[in-house]
Amino acid sequence: MKRVITSGRGFASMRICVIGAGYVGLATAVMFGKLGHRVACADVDNHRVREVNAGRAPFYEPPLEKELGRLVRSGALTASKNVIRSVADSKCTFICVQTPSLASGRIDVRPLKAACRTVAKALSRSEGYKLVAIRSTVIPSTTDTIVRQILEEGSGKSAGKDFGLCANPEFLQEGSALRDSMEPSRIVIGASDKRASDTLMKLYAPIKADRVRTDLRTAEMIKYASNAFLATKITYANEMANLCRRLGIDSEEVLGATGKDPRIGPLFLRPGLGFGGSCLPKDVKALRHMSRALGYPARLLSAVLDINDLQPLEALLLLNDALGSIKGKRIAVLGLSFKGGVDDVRETRAVILITELLAGGADVIAFDPMAMSSFIEIMPTISFASSIDEALTDSDACVIQADWAEFRKLGRKEFCRMRQPIVVDGRRCLDPERVEKDGARYFGIGYGHASEPDESLGGCKS
Ligand code: UDX
Ligand code: UDX
Q1: 3-state secondary structure of 152
Q2: 3-state SS, residue 351
Q3: Residue 457 confidence (pLDDT) above 70
């Protein structure tokens, strides 16, 4: 008789394989591990496999790493380079490999194809029904064409009959990857057939969230529509903020009140130096590329990308306002990751910002609490400081590029190290009044008020 292992939570524990130990893959793996399943992570990268087996995440994500360590120690989660065996031993396989942008904006499906070829080999050697779910972000039709064809040809089996095929996009944010996986805003299940859809529904049964059951292409498009909207909303906030500043108005008040309309909502309306990261820029570019290929120009997406690339220049305008010219001035750039709290530098706006600062003749000194080693690989020739204090010492101004919690604590002690205490808040994460009380001049994206330090409280020399 077949033995059914139960998770102790009233449902059968399954063997699950997750291909790709990046943010998406590890969050997916830990989520299923926490739900009581046995998870095999498969990755072609030796270093990543070793890190995972040691209970370490290959990126900075403390809550995820803590749970990963617990699951590895209990034996519920293991990592391996042997993708074929990991897939063959599992009932469900989630493909979570990267889909980066090519120069044209189109996604590079080579890693996805490589993963599918391996899965196909495993399917050809396996008995019984298996499910393959694509969790990587892929352009509509990819699962039903490229993925299906490779799996069917390589395995000699049929999707919808011998194995199930799903498109199951994730919506997690870096910095809260595990929480967003365990408490998602919705679970989207696109499937080739009812059995595949039912299998995923069962797997997700313990998670409370609205379910959207649909076909493969619709599920893929939901992910792009969501990310394109988020990118557009941020860009709208940036455009309003840029306008407010030129009008002498504080955009925080304007956007705060705008977001109180339930039809608009307050989230993703924080102006800054533009959106970066592994998803928003790549997904908007891919959607625009697909759109153009269909003969539809997608002007809104083009505008979003153009405005986003110009947005870091707002910091230069603020610096020029404050300093007259940046030529020969020492500028401290605080925060190099694409947002605070993560060590990911993919598509970080810091690259555009620093390139422009250097072009303007500034002397740049950069600091980040966690992302320095990856940023050095992108811009090896600039100067790096080993602390906030070192970055600020003798600088003529600082620009906050990523909203790390430690930058929010900057005060009189730190400002007094600067040659000129001038703060350009590129992420609107500081309180202008407090900065001025602490003796520095405040310049912020979308902050339209003239700033003067509060001399009555005593300058740095007192
Ligand atoms: C990425 C994208 O950013 C996201 O949009 C997409 O939906 C999923 O992939 P992330 O998890 O951050 O997200 O990617 P990454 O850190 O690059 O991890 C992918 C992993 O897949 C790498 O460790 C890579 O070695 C592995 N991989 C890739 C395989 O194991 N097999 C392959 O054939 C290809
Ligand atoms: C994003 C999506 O939020 C997530 O749903 C998807 O699955 C992956 O892509 P993430 O890449 O972690 O997540 O970044 P996110 O927190 O969305 O921020 C993206 C960029 O927008 C960052 O550079 C951030 O600084 C910027 N941002 C975000 C703003 O400038 N203003 C805001 O109000 C919000």
Answers
A1: helix
A2: helix
A3: no
Check if 279 is active-site: yes
Instruction: Name residue, tokens 């909303």.
Output: 233
Q: Is residue 201 part of a domain?
A: yes
Residue range(s) defining the domain that contains residue 113: 15-214
Both 334 and 439 in a single domain?
yes
Are residues 297 and 355 both part of a single domain?
A: no
Going by pLDDT thresholds of 50, 70 and 90, the confidence category of residue 461 is low
Catalytic member of 41, 96, 166, 279: 279
Q: What is the distance between the alpha carbons of residues 314 and 329, in angstroms, rounded to a whole number?
A: 17
Residue of the CA atom closest to atom 33 of ligand 1: 115
Residue 171 is encoded by which pair of tokens? Answer: 């919506």
Which pTM value belongs to this model?
A: 0.95
One domain, residues 405 and 436: yes
Q: What is the number of structural domains in the chain?
A: 3
Q: How many CB atoms lie within 10 A of CB 298?
A: 18
Q: Is residue 9 part of a domain?
A: no
The band of 6, judged by pLDDT with boundaries at 50, 70 and 90, is: very low
Q: pLDDT digits over 432-452, tens only?
A: 999 999 999 999 999 998 777
Phi-psi region for residue 331, left (φ > 0), alpha (ψ -120 to 50) or beta? beta
**What is the rounded CA–CA span in Å between residue 61 and residue 56?**
10
Q: Identify the three-state secondary structure at position 164.
A: strand
> What would the two tokens of residue 223 be?
């992910």
DSSP assigned state of 455: G
**Is any atom of ligand 2 closer than 6 Å to the C-beta of 124?**
no
Ligand 2 atom nearest to CA at 427: 30
Asked whether 169 lines ligand 1 (CB < 6 A), one says no
